[in-house]
Amino acid sequence: MLISTLHGSYLFCALTKCVECSSEASELADIEWDNLGFGLLPTDYMYMMKCSQGGNFSKGELQRFGNIELNPSAGVLNYGQGLFEGLKAYRKEDGNILLFRPEENALRMRQGAERMCMPAPTVDQFVEAVKETVLANKRWVPPPGKGSLYIRPLLMGSGAVLGLAPAPEYTFLIYVSPVGNYFKEGVAPINLIVEHELHRATPGGTGGVKTIGNYAAVLKAQSAAKAKGYSDVLYLDCVHKKYLEEVSSCNIFVVKGNVISTPAIKGTILPGITRKSIIDVARSQGIQVEERFVPVDELLDADEVFCTGTAVVVSPVGSITYKGKRVSYGVDGFGAVAQQLYSVLTRLQMGLIDDKMNWTVELS
Ligand SMILES: *Cc1c(COP(=O)(O)O)cnc(C)c1O
Ligand SMILES: *[C@@H]1O[C@H](CO)[C@@H](O)[C@H](O)[C@H]1NC(C)=O
Ligand SMILES: *[C@@H]1O[C@H](CO)[C@@H](O)[C@H](O)[C@H]1NC(C)=O
User: Fold this and answer.
1) Nearest to residue 85, comparing CAs of 66, 65, 99, 68?
2) Ligand 3 in contact with 35 (CB < 6 A)?
3) pLDDT by residue (tens digit) across 69-126?
4) CA of 18 to the centre of ligand 1 (A)
5) pLDDT given at position 187
6) Are residues 68 and 16 in the same domain?
7) What angle do CA 336, 340, 343 make, to 5 degrees?
8) What's the domain range around 89?
9) 167 shares a domain with 54
10) Which atom of ligand 1 is nearest to the CA of 104?
11) What is the pTM of this model?
12) What percent helix, strand, coil does the chain show, rounded to 5?
């Protein structure tokens, strides 16, 4: 028998029971929910909305997930005029879905768009589009405890330009993919190497916005680090080569006693929403937080170091290597402070504790 698959192609299937697995009406997609990683798994729908330079975004709509068409001269392809965002949706035990601070992603995209000379959706347009996209792909939101739906909004110069200039047309797009819990097989602390030659960002540059060009630029240092067995790279400021900045795609915190310190936002580090939330959670737990210049030397006598970002939430750092010298934090999994913060934040995001912060948005 021939049955239609989700993506419009046809699949020959001899088993009657396959008919059920192609039904979009079912509560959950028929996949191995226990084996989710952090790779792209195509879902049913994506959201698209366009606008011309100087205009406003309007008439966004859901489309079947699939390839998009771009003029070879599109601004995003030729000059990197593009931004991305990342957030997650969790399924609660009652079946409702929780988004975490989506308006923060909307605001960050608007700030990035200003830097990159692009028009951006309003906060309402952004949040509504995220909600619509998640609900249309509801069956791809993993069951409680199995992971989350990763939501990836993009903003790009899709219009054709030849000379260097802002594109004449922009596309806002959202796609989603189910992802597993980062620490599926237990918490594995990451091992970082401090990079003191290549830099991720410069004062006056674009390190503080989530523009696509910042990421290809770190691949070289990241690949070299991985080839030597490290998990990722920790960047230093490019002026003094002395102060911590961040990891390729997450922010960093250093714990000493009852104080946690993190580099202040000053244009060269990405203002993480997890970073900001962890700062608030820490203060609510009576932990002192300092946002300041953090010299690389402080890594030497730190009690714990951890990273924050949407994908990992909180990731403990097991060791940091700087100019050939390795400092270990002697933790097998989480240190006590990172553990406490991870636990409070993830339970809040998953709807397991009362959201006194009013950070979650519930969809049913
Ligand atoms: C996205 C990102 C982060 C983390 O931001 P969140 O909002 O917490 O996900 C940190 N650093 C960089 C460079 C990033 O791109
Ligand atoms: C875009 O929206 C703003 C605010 O709603 C409005 O003032 C402006 O006139 C609109 N521009 C266009 C070209 O429609
Ligand atoms: C909670 O946050 C939402 C935005 O997500 C806002 O509209 C609402 O007014 C807030 N409620 C309270 C009680 O602050």
Assistant:
1) 99
2) no
3) 999 999 999 999 999 999 999 999 999 999 999 999 999 999 999 999 999 999 999 9
4) 40
5) 79
6) yes
7) 135
8) 12-179
9) yes
10) 7
11) 0.92
12) 25, 30, 45
